[in-house]
Amino acid sequence: MKRFLLICLSGLILASFTLLGGINDVVSALKAGNSAQIAKYFDNTVEITLPEKSNSYSKSQAELILRDFFTNNPVKSFTLIHQGDNAGSQYCIGTLLTKTATYRTTIYMKQKGDKQLLQEIRFENK
User: Fold this and answer.
1) d(CA 124, CA 68)
2) Is residue 66 predicted with pLDDT exceeding 90?
3) What is the C-alpha separation between 86 and 113, in angstroms, rounded?
């Protein structure tokens, strides 16, 4: 019985790391200003909010929009303020410091099948 409980607990711990892996990978890519790495987690359509525009984009369009944003706003650092989950969804809020401005950044990901997929990313002037 103890062995069974230990195996179940180990499985739950590994599953929680797998679920957090997606959002943690996106945060790491955000810190590096790496749009291609972030795009690996895009859903079929992604909502991107920038100070000057907001829209839903296809995966390929969203990567171009994000790449352009990082080109015009080279990333200096990203500080995670809050991270959480709600019914299979993951989100985090942080401060993105670039060479041109500081942005309050929100990332929202949703569990689809066995993967966490990025649904929305917001960059709001601070």
Assistant:
1) 16
2) yes
3) 16
Q: Domain 2-125 belongs to what architecture? A: Roll (3.10)
Banded pLDDT at 87 (limits 50, 70, 90):
confident
Residue pair 95/78 in contact (Cβ under 8 Å)? The answer is yes
- Residue identified by tokens 């711990």 is 13
Domain ranges of the chain: 2-125
DSSP string, 25-65: HHHHHHHHT-HHHHHTTEEEEEEEE-SS-EEEEEHHHHHHH
> What is the reported pLDDT for 91?
96
Strand pairing category for 42-49 and 115-125? parallel
